[in-house]
User: Fold this.
Amino acid sequence: MSERPARDSALAAQADHHARMQRDFRWSVPRDFNIAQLCSRRWASAPNASKRIAVQDHSTGASSASHTYFQLQEAANALSNALAALGVRRGDREAGA
Assistant:
């Protein structure tokens, strides 16, 4: 008696379950969620933010560079100020190409 049909059936059931999970998945994001706060601002406000590496840039054939949470937040603030100067306001959706 072969175990292959039972195994194939179990694999098919797993595949169906995975497809259903993907189809039915929905993000549950609070209305006031701020990804910048989660990813940068809270770390940039830590006492050691000017020493903690947030982004490490590795390039082939070139020297690598690192950016601290403090530097990352400074750049984010500069971008926010530039967008505000262009008239972008809270709630506007912007994207670059």
Observations:
- The longest strand covers residues 53-57.
- Residues 1 and 27 are 45 Å apart (CA to CA).
- The chain is about 50% helix and 10% strand.
